[in-house]
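Let us work through a complete example step by step.
Step 1: write down the sequence.
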Amino acid sequence: MPVTTITYKEKKIVFIHFEGCNKKEDMLNVVKETTDYLLAFPDKDIRVLFDFSLAFGSKEYMKLAQEGRERVYKVKNLKSACFGLNAAKKVLLHVYNAITNTRGLAPFSSREEALEYLISPN
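Step 2: predict the structure and record it as tokens.
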């Protein structure tokens, strides 16, 4: 399952990965599943970690991700981080963060750094 909840230092974190995504439709399904999961999540304040190591982008993915994020932000407070970005993915993330009216995704070099950020008080 690409969307699940993990516990890190006694904090719940929604974890999204793209393992097994071989085509654009797979990526779009992860976005839809993520949106539904976050909207159904019982807590209003949610920490979210994305592993983009095996992900790839498309215009459709970026559009759907933005739409889903806007829906979630209307009812939830998110603190989001990601790791597994190569140069091209960093450019896509920069564009995504620039066009969304939200806090955006904080990029990190490692999973551990991203997790530490998510549990930090800021």
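Step 3: interpret the result. The chain has four helices and five strands.
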